[in-house]
Structure formats: C-alpha cells, structure tokens
Amino acid sequence: MLLLSVLLVPLGVLTLIAMVLLWPTGDRGSLTVASPYATADGVSFDVGTVREVAQGDCPSSQPTVDAGGTAQTCTLAYTQPALGGEVIAVEVTPELARTNAVEPGDQIRYLNLANVLQGGAAPYVFVDFVRSVPIVGLAIGYAVVVIAVARWRGLRAIIGLVGALVILAQFVLPGLVEGRPPLLLGLVGSVVIMYGVLYFAHGVSARTSTALLGTVFGLGVTALLAAWATDAAHLTGVGDENAYTLVNASDGLSISSIILCGLIISGLGVLNDVTITQSSSVWELYELAPATSGRRLFTSAMRIGRDHIASTVYTIAFAYAGAALPVLILVSLYDRALLDTLTSGELAEEVVRTLVGSIGLVLAIPLTTLIAVLVVKTVGPGAPGGGHDDGRDDGATPEVPAGPRTLAPGQRLLAVGERRARRPAEGDA
User: Fold this and answer.
1) Which residue in 35, 316, 345, 379 has a CA-CA distance of 20 to 30 Å to 243?
2) Rounded Cα–Cα distance for residues 376 and 207 (Å)
3) Which has the higher per-residue pLDDT, 344 or 222?
4) What angle do CA 132, 134, 135 make, to 5 degrees?
5) Could you give all domains of the chain from N- to C-terminal order, each with its CATH number?
C-alpha cells in the first residue's frame, strides 16, 4: 500500500495542479454560435398534446390559395395547446410524416408564428417531441435498479457519474473552446474523473488503488496513440455537420483537437471496468486460496483477463455499430471496396476510436493484474488497507476451508486452470 501511495499521491497532486493551471477562464472570445432554438420577436416555441392526426390542406399554403393557386396536402397534428385555447393544426414535416411517428396523445413542441403573419391561417410548425416524462422515467428506473442490486456502492457510482459529468461540462468542454492543449486537457480531466469515481464508488483500498494505477497506465497509452493517430489518419472531422458549425463559428477552434480529446475520454468507462474487475478477481482468488504462489495467481487471473479482453473488444465495436446504424447503412449502399469504406471520412474517426481504446485497455489488463498480485501478496486480503470491498454489509472476510486433505474452492479453481493450461490443443494454451 505504501508503494501505491508513493505513486498515486504525487500523481494526484500533479493532476490537481495541472487542473488549476488549465482551468478555463470562461471567456469565449469571438466564438458565437447561433442557437437553433432562438426565435424572432413575436415567434415562440409552444407545447401541446396531439388529439388527432390527419391529412389536409397545409395552412402555410394559404397565401398560394389566395393568389389563385392550389393548396398543398400535408400531415396535420390537431393539437391542444398546453396554455389552453382552441385546438390548432400543426404542420408535420414530410420527413417525419413518412415515419408515422406522430400519434394522438403525444406531447409535441411546435413553432408558433401566429403573431408575425398577417392574414390567412397562421401556420404552426412541428419542431420536436417532448420527451421529458419517458426519459426521466428511464433515469429513475435505472437508478432504482442499480441501487437495488449494488446497494450503497451503486448509489455512490451514480453520484460519481454526476460528478464526472460536471468535470466534463465545467472543465473539459470550456477548455477546448478556449484552445487549451487537448492532450493535457483530456488526460487531466480523465485522471481527475477516475480518482473521484473509483475511490468514491469502491472505497479507499489497495484493491481500488491497484485498479486506478492500471487505469492511469491505460489512459497514458490511449493518449499517446490518440495523439499519433489523429495526425497520421488525418482526422479533421470536417465531414460532420456539427464540426462545420464549429469551424464556421471560430477560426481558432481546432476540430482535430476536439477529436483528440474525445479519443482519450471515450475509453474511460470500459477501461475503468476492466481494471477494477481484474483487480477484484486477483483479490477474490487470493482470498479463496491464500497459499497460492504469485505466479499461479497471475496465470489464473490472466485467464479471466483474456476472457474480459475478448468480450470488451466486442462491446466497444458493437456500441458504435448500434449508435451509428444509419451511417453504416448509408455507406454500405455505396459501391466501394470494404477497405475504402472503413477508412472513409464517415467511418475513420470511429474506427480509430475503437482501435485506440482497445489497445489501451488490452495493455492495461496484464499490468493491473501484475500490480494486484504483487500488492495482495504483500498486504494480504484482510490486512489494513487491503480493503475487502465486495459489497457485503458486514465486511466479514469469508472463511477459507483448512485441512491437509481439503482444497479450498480457489485452490480447486487454480488447479483446474493449471490443468487447462497444460493442454496444448485448447484455447489460450
């Protein structure tokens, strides 16, 4: 535990100093972005409940009708305004109308142009759905499930997540806007988040400190690879609509810097997952078989780590695939070679993000395992600072069956692992 403190305490102090030096001033300079939710005088965004959806003459085409033309047909959502009044006809955009997404009972937000148009029917134009109730309901359900299963640790994890979002919103994002060094900004912000989240959610212990050290190592590898890949792969981000908006908003804002910082931050969750799980695996194996040698303990824990590596690589890849299905479908329809598709501007950033994050977490697993083995063999599972943070409320350490003729469960597990390792035709052997 002393060795961990010698490494982690100075690192934490340096990180805090760097955070103070990099803290944004709040001055955006000449950076201005027009809000899509801003309205002219007399125009407002109103909320209402849809009573009926039907086809009809578009109210916005009334001037054309008055001029002797023909009214266009569109989908109308007859809506009861939340502030009261008569039911109004809200025009639904053609793209949304084709999906039949607007149904009676939906709460919608619409643009009210009644006070600015002179003569004819005043058009009300659909803007978006009001999603507050279902999203808040999901958030509450998520919190209830996490706390019910993980108990106080789950509650601490949720609070830690809120703190992490505050760091992103108050430190990382404003720092990028002000042109702070993206590599330092991403590293400092990520390390601060990991210090807070890991210790707050899992408690201060040698087990948690081991996971934190492995996480910091993984972050360092990820940051170096991200810095190289952003330049080598020419990740400019100019193919994204939001990036175009930022580029036009300020000449001093670097999209490549934003991408670099994003590559570092994107791997935080998975990296934290593998390191804390690997550290906990070593502790649990050792508690079940305290007489196990360090070499056997490392070998058995790495078997768990290899399984974790395989499943985590799938997790990263599928997480992107699920979030980007429209883009993937679009590029799959192009008549291009597979390599050209994967290295195109539409996919290159996500491919690099997946590869960089995967390399960082894969290398973090053996290091975390090695540190955990060295620490647990030194302090023992029940020693002060060792930390038995397994979620039990009584904090009791499980008894290990003793006796010359009986193997503890952990010893049996380790023995099975060794026998499997001797089989040259199987798996990782």
Assistant:
1) 316
2) 8
3) 222
4) 65
5) 2-25+134-390+401-421 (no CATH), 44-130 (2.40.50.140)
